[in-house]
Amino acid sequence: MAGMMQWFQVTCPSCAAHLQVRLPEGITSVQCSECKAVFAVQIQPTALAPQAQPSSGKRSRKRKAEKDANAPPRALSAYNVFMKAEVAKVKAEHPELPHREAFKMAAERWQASPMNPQNGGERFPALPKV
User: Going by fewer Cβ within 10 Å, which terminus of the chain is more open, N or C?
Assistant: First the structure.
């Protein structure tokens, strides 16, 4: 480990500038790039100890929080409410139309819809009871 260099952030005692420096273990002199002052920095051998990493070399992933089964579903946005109803209307009008094309037609109708928040509609409207 002797001679191993690592990056550290040090603060100049003269001007308080934060410096990124690559230093070896032990006492080293550093010159501030702001005020040109020279000061000594001592790096302890324990500071250079490698940090524990998983044996596989891959980052560990955070586990997703468990969803509450009793929680109410999230509110649908105006776009989702409109598209769900509009795609059904388009498919009723044109049963031979593929879903992709029906969705495109519904998306074009969304641009002029009064439900669209850009046209003055609510962002999360109350769902109509069916």
Answer: C
